[in-house]
Structure formats: structure tokens, C-alpha cells
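Morning. Coffee machine broken again, so started the prediction first thing and wrote up yesterday's gels while waiting. Chain of 171 residues, entered below exactly as on the submission form.
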Amino acid sequence: MKKLHSRATWLFFINYFLRFLVVFIVLFGYAFIPNYYLSSAQLNPKYKFAFIAGAIGLLALLFLWAWLTKHFYRYELSKNGFKSEQGVLSKKYVTIPYDRIQNVDIHRGILSRIIGLSDIQIQTAGTAGVSVGWARGGSEGRLPGIGKDEAEKLRDELIERAKKSSKDQGL
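Came back before lunch.
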């Protein structure tokens, strides 16, 4: 099975960081509101060091999780369909038969374009209008972190195999 592009780690890391940042601001935003009764000179330097060390440790954990996510995300074009497996703690295996593929989209958001990656979304008849999670959209198969050239080749190959599969069935 093939792995994602090596820069996909950065794509996952930045996404995880932004998600964590939103949650952090919502939960601890009050700490950043200026307190006029407490000057910065009264803050204990140990707390500042602990905050900085904790932030660096958290960033290291987020990067490790992003690397593990990329490492355990694999895909292949088998004889019968598109196969992918993903997950660090729990695994998810997806097989999409070629005859069910309706459309293959390539999505390049601003972050992906900066890093030079693409996101392939494989849509089938059964899930074209169904939302499957907050950031996944309505595609049954999703392959983030693919190089630009590889994504275009993969899209063309999937479409070709889908056409060939539907012709073999007499559709």
C-alpha cells in the first residue's frame, strides 16, 4: 500500500494546532483579558516558564500525533476497488468498488496549496449529499496529503477504472 506525501505531516499538524487553538481560546480566553488589578510585575516567573514549557510540550505532542496519523494512512488501487486504511488508536478500513464511483474531486485549500498538496475526494451514489463529519464533506473516500502531480494521476486512474468497470457490467 502507498503512503501519503511526507509533507502531509505538516498539513495534519497545522490542522490539529488550529483546532486546539480554537478550543483553548474558548476555554481559557478569559486569561487573556487584561486584568487591571494585577500588573505583569506581580506574576511569578515560574508560572511563565511552566506555561512556555507546557506549550512547547503540547506542540511536540501535536506534531507526533500528526506524524503518526500520516504514517498510518495508506491507500491502494486494487483489482476490485480503491482501498484505504487510517487510524492510530483505532483503524478504519474503506473499500470503494470502482463501479460505485460517481465522481473524483481534487480539493486544494489555501493551506494545502502553500504546502503543495492536494485532497482527493471520491464520491459514490450513496453518499453524495450526506455530511460525514465536520471537515470531511460528502465524500465516502477521502485522501488528504497527496502531491499535486500524484493527485491528478490518481484521479485520472480512478475515473478510467470506474468507466471500465461500468462498461463491463453493461451499464
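The longest strand covers residues 117-124. Going to sketch it on the whiteboard this afternoon.
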